[in-house]
Structures are given as C-alpha cells and as structure tokens.
C-alpha cells in the first residue's frame, strides 16, 4: 500500500486549516488502513525556530504509523492555462505519495501550464488542486473531485463556494476558473480565463 500524505500550509509559524487536515487524515486511517484510533496533527508536528518565518509546505507522510514530518519552502507557481485531458482510470481517492498516474497525465499538458482532468465525462481536478469556476455571482466546484481537498471542504462549509455537476460542455457558462488547495485560498489562488482552458487536438 502506498503511504499517504497531508500537506499543510505553514506561514510564519502558523499551521492553517488543521481541523480539516485532521478530519481527512483520520478518515483515511479508517478507510484505507482500517485503523480506528484518531490522531491529532498538532500533537505530532513540531515547528522549530528555522521554520517560524516564511512560507512552507508541512508534509506529514504516514502509513499505519506517522513516518516523518518535513518542511519544504513554498513558492507559488504561475498557472494561466489548462489542458483538458481524459483520465478515466485515475484513482486518487486518497492523497497518495505515489503520484505516477497524475504525473503521466501532466505530461500531456502540451503548451499549457497544467491539466484539467476529465473523468467519465465530468470535470474533476488539476494535477495539484481542486478547481472552482466563477459564473459572475458565485464560485462553483465540481461535485466529482478526484480528491476532496481541505481548502475545498472549508470553503464549502463556510458558504464561499458551491458544488454542482460540471462537464466540459458546461464551461461556457463561466467567466474564469481558480485553483485551490492547502496552499491556495480564494485570495492567493491562480485565476485562469476560460478561453485558456483548451482541449487536446
């Protein structure tokens, strides 16, 4: 079984959205590893002085036991274009450390910055983020994500975004798209114009 991963935003010594990361980690421990005992990440992660300034990805790698916690300095990547690619066989229900399937699809992005995966006729995610679409009034996210992200869950619960079925044929209903993940919220996410979401020829 592939080890799993939680990636948590650490900025100036503060960990973000821990409630949602704890939920996902413990659900994965139950559903993937068959474990009932719950873990609190705040009791596992120790932030030393060198990581108390700046922006980092705090990566918690775990199997049935926590394997390691590491900190990686983060720089936001510019994403202005997305290539629609079909990925009907991709399984990313859990946040696996093994990303070979996603990397293979990412290799089909052509001249675009990232991919937007279509599975069974429905829009899912990019290679590293959940996607949201703006219709001029509200932000909408597909109800068919490969992996329901922690930022996505928080924004849904807080009523900042809404969920619906979205297919490639629906994309003309929207003005632009945003990419959200543990490191990117509504303020810091890259925004992609709909004209820059293209299909492979």
TrEMBL record:
<dbReference type="Pfam" id="PF01063">
    <property type="entry name" value="Aminotran_4"/>
</dbReference>
<dbReference type="InterPro" id="IPR036038">
    <property type="entry name" value="Aminotransferase-like"/>
</dbReference>
<dbReference type="GO" id="GO:0008696">
    <property type="term" value="F:4-amino-4-deoxychorismate lyase activity"/>
</dbReference>
<keyword id="KW-0456">Lyase</keyword>
<dbReference type="InterPro" id="IPR043131">
    <property type="entry name" value="BCAT-like_N"/>
</dbReference>
<protein>
    <submittedName>
        <fullName>Aminodeoxychorismate lyase</fullName>
        <ecNumber>4.1.3.38</ecNumber>
    </submittedName>
</protein>
<dbReference type="InterPro" id="IPR043132">
    <property type="entry name" value="BCAT-like_C"/>
</dbReference>
<dbReference type="InterPro" id="IPR001544">
    <property type="entry name" value="Aminotrans_IV"/>
</dbReference>
């Amino acid at each position: 079984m592939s080890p799993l991963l939680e990636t948590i935003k650490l900025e100036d010594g503060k960990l973000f959205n821990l409630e949602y990361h704890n939920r996902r980690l413990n659900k994965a421990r139950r559903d993937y590893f068959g474990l009932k005992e719950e873990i609190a990440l705040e009791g596992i992660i120790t932030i030393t002085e060198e990581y108390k300034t700046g922006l980092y990805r705090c990566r918690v790698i775990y199997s049935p036991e926590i394997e390691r916690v590491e900190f990686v300095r983060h720089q936001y990547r510019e994403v202005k274009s997305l290539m629609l690619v079909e990925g009907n066989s991709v399984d990313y229900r859990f946040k696996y450390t093994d990303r070979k399937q996603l990397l293979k699809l990412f290799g089909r992005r052509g001249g675009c910055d990232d991919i937007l995966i279509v599975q069974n006729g429905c829009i899912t995610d990019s290679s590293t983020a959940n996607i949201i679409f703006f219709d001029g009034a509200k932000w909408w996210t597909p109800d068919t994500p490969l992996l329901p992200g922690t930022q996505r869950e928080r924004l849904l619960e807080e009523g900042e975004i809404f969920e619906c079925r979205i297919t490639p044929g629906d994309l003309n209903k929207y003005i632009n798209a945003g990419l959200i993940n543990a490191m990117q919220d509504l303020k810091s996410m890259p925004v992609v114009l709909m004209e820059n979401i293209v299909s492979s020829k």
